[in-house]
Design a protein that fits this description.
Layout (H helix, E strand, L loop, with lengths): L1 E10 L2 E6 L4 E6 L11 E8 L2 E7 L5 E5 L4 E6 L3 E7 L6 H13 L3 E7 L7 H13 L4 E3 L7 H7 L3 E5 L6 H8 L10 H7 L8 E4 L5 E4 L13 H6 L25 H7 L5 H22 L2
Parallel strand pairs: 3-5, 8-9, 8-11, 9-10, 11-13
Antiparallel strand pairs: 1-2, 1-4, 2-3, 4-5, 6-7, 12-13
The protein binds guanosine-5'-triphosphate, magnesium ion and zinc ion.
Length: 297
């Protein structure tokens, strides 16, 4: 029997697919290649009780992934919104945040930043200061405590497929459980996470929201390589650079040390955050190094 369904969990080479008639099947891909991601729409053929084979992938509306020179790691497909989860504790990296934003912008996804654990007031000012750059760029920031009350987030999720991403221990799974109690996603004390060096969530899973839409809880990440973005796509994913496109003196300006560089002038004048320009140059240089490695020179 063949049916269409949604891939709701991706563990290595096996996938859980909820078919449109409600059955949940544990599936393997047909053939060796397994390049599916949580959120994918697929056609499956039942191969036994509760088991199936993925036969076809329905074209994706979006795909969020990270990459280094050698590998791509799919995170989720068909999300409409990326929810970047940071917290007052443990500390987070604004560079990591910029990377996630580039990946999301390049897929034209909505972006929402959640500052979690506002009940830990000691970390609040520092976290807000770190987020000021992103607030100035117009990215919405929602402050809450998943342990006290996650409800302010619910209205922002209805009708969207929201991918929760962030570093380990920020509270993605705690938020998921607060909004969808049946989710029962595993959560863990950060101290334990640090002891074992492992993330608590080990694979991405999609949970339907009772009000419509869904949440994809994903494993914490340490790095977010953007090697799949070329220089042009990378530049376009820094939204504050867009008004300066084509304004540099040289058409092929690399925004590095060229005279008459509009981006550099804007950074010097404080119209764009110099830190973001440095991040752009750093991400681009990583991409170029990775391409040279792959090509062997
Ligand atoms: N004080 C406080 N602690 C929280 C809050 N939200 C989550 N935590 C705690 O933070 C720790 C980590 O939470 P998780 O939900 O497991 O974090 P995660 O982002 O899913 O982590 P990974 O799965 O490793 O990526 C747990 O001990 C939670 O109880 C909050 O709003 N306030
Ligand atoms: Mg988790
Ligand atoms: Zn320039």
């Amino acid at each position: 029997m063949k049916s269409f369904g949604t891939l709701i969990a991706a563990f290595g080479r096996q996938y859980e697919v909820r078919s449109d008639n409600g059955d949940v099947l544990l599936c393997v891909p047909r053939g060796k290649k397994s390049l599916f991601a949580c959120g994918d729409r697929v056609q499956v053929a039942t191969s036994g009780p509760g088991q199936g084979v993925i036969e076809k992938l329905v074209e994706r509306r979006s795909l969020l992934y990270r990459s280094d020179a050698w590998r791509q790691k799919l995170i989720a497909a068909n999300a409409t919104q990326v929810v970047l989860v940071v917290a007052t504790e443990p500390s987070f990296s604004d560079e990591f945040l910029s990377r996630c934003i580039c990946a999301a912008e390049s897929q034209h996804l909505k972006i929402l930043i959640v500052l979690n654990k506002t009940d830990i007031v000691a970390g609040l000012d520092g976290a807000r200061a770190q987020l000021a750059t992103f607030a100035a760029l117009g990215y919405p920031i929602l402050e809450l405590s998943a342990l006290d009350n996650a409800e302010p987030l619910r209205a922002r999720l209805i009708g969207e497929t929201s991918l929760l991403v962030g570093q380990s221990g920020m509270g993605k799974s705690t938020l998921t459980n607060a909004l969808i109690p049946e989710a029962r996603a595993e959560t863990r004390e950060i101290s334990e996470v640090l002891d074992t060096g492992k993330h608590t969530t080990t694979f991405a899973r999609l949970y339907p929201l009772p009000e419509g839409g869904g949440i994809i809880d994903s494993p914490g990440m340490q790095t977010f390589g953007l090697v799949h973005l070329d220089a042009e796509a990378l530049e376009a994913s820094f939204r504050e650079f867009r008004p300066y496109a084509g304004q540099c003196r040289f058409r092929d300006c690399r925004h590095d040390a060229e005279p008459g560089c509009a981006l550099r002038e804007a950074a010097d004048a404080g119209r764009i955050d110099p830190r973001r320009l440095r991040q752009f140059l750093q991400f681009r240089s990583e991409c170029e190094t990775a391409r040279r490695q792959v090509q062997g020179w």
